[in-house]
Amino acid sequence: MIDAAARSLAHSQRLLVLSGAGLSAESGIPTFREAQSGLWAKFSPQDLATPEAFDANPERVWAWYRWRRSLIARGGVNAGHRAIAALEKHLDVVIATQNVDGLQTAAGSRDICELHGNIWVDRCSACDTEHSQPVAEADESAALPRCDACGALMRPGVVWFGEMLPIHALERAQAELDRCDCVLVVGTSNQVYPAAALVEMAVAGPATVLEVNPQTTSVSAGVDTHIAQTASTALPALVDRLDASRAAR
Ligand code: APR
Q1: CB contact at 8 A, 88 and 69
Q2: Which residues form the domain of 193?
Q3: Nearest residue CA, atom 10 of ligand 1?
Q4: Atom of ligand 1 minimally distant from the CA of 212
Q5: What total of structural domains would you count in the chain?
Q6: Which of 95, 182, 201, 229 lies in the 20 to 30 Å Cα band around 83?
């Protein structure tokens, strides 16, 4: 499977990567549809990642996002993120990610559409003023952040259930879907729309579609190559084969 996928990449010019939480799982960041570990076992993201949850209990929502920020700061970039950045040696790469962790940017990728926003951005819940926060373990005892422009509570700069995606990111991803000749789907269960629709359009379209996921998903039967391995195993192996085939030329 790896060899077939590497051959597809070697014969492509423009790659669109569609990534999800599974890409960051090996950084120690739980995915959404696996059981939430520890403190958050009794909550589901659907109960925390909504405007209503924030209005009802901003302290609890901020505690969850501060917990996730600390996990991301501790886990950091993994071999899968680095391999995706390394693919830029071989192809023009655009990444449309559902992840809000900022790890693909930290790994060095330069062209990323953050479909669900970025956890390191605070946004005013009233006037949309935004402030980027440093990547660091969160101070869980700190008072909730307030807007220095209008005094309202700040919220995490991510897309919550029921909210619109940033239109520029979604339109860019759709435009790249029309331009690319290969799509690499990594670590997503394809259950949340409209991001999942990008995967479905890729499978229905002319581009070669590769999927990296230890599990099968709703699109696995329709992709050209499904690699049933983790991102940190499969993606470096793909880069190694592209490096070797270039050296052999
Ligand atoms: N490598 C690759 N894939 C993995 C790995 C790994 N190491 N570990 C788990 N996976 C796969 C799982 O098999 C699953 O298919 O990653 C996928 C994670 O699926 P979800 O938890 O549903 O994450 P995702 O698809 O990104 O969720 C989409 O849902 O809650 C919202 O906004 C949130 O962006 C998120 C969206």
Answers
A1: no
A2: 2-29+77-116+165-248
A3: 22
A4: 2
A5: 2
A6: 201
